[in-house]
Amino acid sequence: MEKLDGEEARLADYFDVIAGTSTGGLVTAMLTTPNDQNRPLSPFPHQAADLVKSLTGPKYDGKYLHNLIKEKLGDKRLHHTLTNVVIPTFDIKCFHLTIFSTYQTLLALGEARRDQVSHGNKNPFLVLSLGTGTAKPVEKYGAEEAAKWGVLGWLSSDNSTPLVDMFMQASSDIVDVHISTVFQALQYPGDNYLRIQDDTLTGELYSVDIATEQNLENLVKVGEELLKKPASRVNLVTGVLEKACINATNEEALIKYVH
């Protein structure tokens, strides 16, 4: 976007609603928080996390993260954001969803749709959904193996975390299933929904907590290579990414979206 519209171009200038949950919520806040000139903050630099591991308590000390967020965002509040944001959360004290935490794309769609109806706007909207990457598709677990697991087996087996892996993959897949269903129901063109996801991550690239400079640089390279790959769609039957009906790379599809 900076190449097309100048160095001052920012994502908040292009979208009516930006939504994210968990890490996506932090990214949403960073992308939409204004600086002193009421423009989006400059792209945040790579910063290896100074985190404290613990065997008996939390794996990482959250104080550093809180201090870093405070340093970057200051005292800004949600109503200061430069475009509409949706950040789903879960209330662990009351044990209920404040907002549906795994359906951030659907939630943003609902908010945008209500706004369209209230203003008499019947034009279809465009949805860009960015994944954070998944592991290379493999047949990781078998029924015979899983049948022997107890509680600990589901939590950790052969240097992997089956239960966490399954929940993470399912929450990612359900976005594609539900958005496709919604767009069909609203009779929107299929290319109005663009999902960009890399499903080839392995090793440290797939880790959620290796924040070394080298790994961050490698992730940037993955993102740059992903832009050059053909736009894809998830096959709702097999769950595998396949080439989309539009003959374009992810980069070309993004340019079409913002222009």
From TrEMBL:
Domain PNPLA: 1-165
Name of a matching Pfam family: Patatin
EC number: 3.1.1.-
Cited Gene3D superfamilies: Cytosolic phospholipase A2 catalytic domain (3.40.1090.10)
Class of enzymatic activity (EC top level): hydrolase
InterPro entries named among the record's database cross-references: Acyl_Trfase/lysoPLipase (IPR016035), PNPLA_dom (IPR002641)
Statement: the UniProt record of this protein carries the keyword Flavoprotein: no
GO biological process, one term: lipid catabolic process
Keywords annotated in UniProt: Hydrolase, Lipid degradation, Lipid metabolism
Short sequence motif named GXSXG, residue ranges: 20-24
Keyword Thylakoid carried by entry: no
GO MF annotation: an example: monoacylglycerol lipase activity
Family named by the database record: Belongs to the patatin family.
Function, in words: Lipolytic acyl hydrolase (LAH).
Domain notes: The nitrogen atoms of the two glycine residues in the GGXR motif define the oxyanion hole, and stabilize the oxyanion that forms during the nucleophilic attack by the catalytic serine during substrate cleavage.
Protein name per Swiss-Prot or TrEMBL: Patatin
Organism of derivation: Turnera subulata
Classification of source organism: Eukaryota, Viridiplantae, Streptophyta, Embryophyta, Tracheophyta
